[in-house]
């Protein structure tokens, strides 16, 4: 049986990505990747490097290329399962130069949030007080929120690895969610995740904040403040939903001043 690229895409969607919380986004990226190929034979004939070159020409950054490389490999594995290719080619990821994560100071946060209308500002506040990814917040249902006294928490469905984690709610988070619940809104508010991201970037441009500030910066801000307040990396890792604590180590440098304070007790 001869398989087309569309057959492979449909098979992969059904067998590997069905029900994934970011299914639509993955499908769109997969369709883009396959648009640079003419047939399943191109998985081995032109390989990943030809697709990579097209993505670079289109302006994709190394981190984005690595994500799409992972999708390409899953598609290639599906093609192999279907017998469309004899081997799954090896690929090499992009080298990414690590840079300190951008986070907001309290003054920057106030400046930025003051430019937002109320519903968007409340959404941004939830993100900076929970560390959730924007997709995680907008996929929340009220059944994920527990109001039980002493166990007030949010069940977050991780968009990266499908695992669940539980976040205790601070008072401001409880108040915002109560407000939205009573108003008949979802936990994410009246907008969609895409609308919120566009609105956030418009407010950021208007604010004049320096550096690369995106919606994901709110997650970095959450983590950075915990570390600066002395919360250990292991606990921060659990709250962020990281499966590997090495991912959380990027925030460790923020605790160096605390280490100096700890050693100062040895001074006479």
Explain what the structure shows.
The protein has 268 residues and is mainly alpha-helical. The chain has 2 domains: 5-81; 106-261, Orthogonal Bundle (hpI Integrase, Chain A), CATH 1.10.443.10. Helix content is 55%, strand content 4%. The chain has 14 helices and 3 strands. It has a 3-stranded antiparallel sheet, with helices on one face. The radius of gyration is 22 Å and the shape is globular. The model has no long low-confidence stretch (mean pLDDT 88).
Gist?
The protein is mainly α. It has helices at 5-17, 23-34, 42-45, 47-58, 62-81, 106-113, 118-130, 134-138, 171-182, 193-207, 216-228, 233-240, 245-248, 256-263; strands at 145-146, 153-157, 164-168.
Largest sheet: spatial strand order: 1-2-3
Secondary structure tally: strands: 3
Mind telling me the CATH superfamily name of the largest domain?
Intergrase catalytic core
Oligomer, anyone? single chain
Radius of gyration: 22 Å
SSE order:
HHHHHHHHEEEHHHHHH
What's the total helix number?
Answer: 14
User: What would you call the shape?
Assistant: globular
CATH topology of the largest domain: hpI Integrase, Chain A
CATH class group of the largest domain: Mainly Alpha
N-end to C-end Cα span: 81 Å
Structural class label: mainly alpha
What is the count of distinct domains? Answer: 2
Average pLDDT number: 88
Q: Which range best describes the helical content: under 10%, 10-25%, 25-40%, 40-55%, 55-70% or over 70%?
A: 40-55%
How is the main sheet built? Answer: 3 strands, antiparallel
Question: What percent of residues are in strands?
Answer: under 5%
Query: Unreliable stretches, pLDDT < 50, 5 or more residues?
Result: none
The CATH architecture category of the largest domain equals: Orthogonal Bundle
């Amino acid at each position: 049986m001869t398989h087309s690229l569309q057959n492979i895409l449909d098979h992969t969607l059904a067998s590997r990505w069905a029900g994934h919380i970011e299914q639509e986004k993955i499908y769109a990226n997969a369709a883009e990747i396959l648009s640079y190929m003419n047939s399943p034979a191109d998985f081995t004939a032109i390989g990943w490097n030809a697709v990579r070159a097209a993505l670079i020409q289109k302006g994709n950054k190394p981190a984005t290329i690595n994500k799409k490389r992972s999708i390409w490999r899953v598609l290639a594995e599906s093609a192999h399962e279907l017998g469309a290719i004899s081997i799954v080619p090896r690929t090499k990821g992009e080298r990414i130069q690590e840079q300190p994560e951008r986070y907001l100071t309290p003054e920057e946060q106030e400046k930025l949030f003051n430019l937002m209308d109320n519903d968007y500002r409340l959404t941004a506040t939830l993100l900076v007080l929970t560390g959730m990814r924007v997709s995680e917040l907008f996929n929340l249902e009220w059944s994920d929120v527990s109001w039980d006294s002493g166990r007030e928490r949010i069940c977050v469905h991780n968009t990266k690895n499908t695992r669940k984690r539980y976040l205790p709610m601070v008072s401001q988070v409880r108040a915002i969610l109560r407000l939205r619940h009573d108003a008949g809104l979802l936990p994410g508010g009246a907008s969609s995740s895409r609308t919120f991201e566009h609105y956030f970037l418009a407010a950021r441009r208007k604010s004049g904040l320096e550096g690369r500030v995106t919606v994901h910066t709110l997650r970095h801000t959450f983590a950075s403040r915990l570390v600066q307040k002395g919360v250990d990396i292991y606990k921060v890792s659990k709250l962020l939903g990281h499966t590997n604590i090495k991912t959380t180590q990027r925030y460790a440098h923020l605790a160096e001043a605390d280490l100096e304070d700890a050693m100062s007790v040895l001074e006479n």
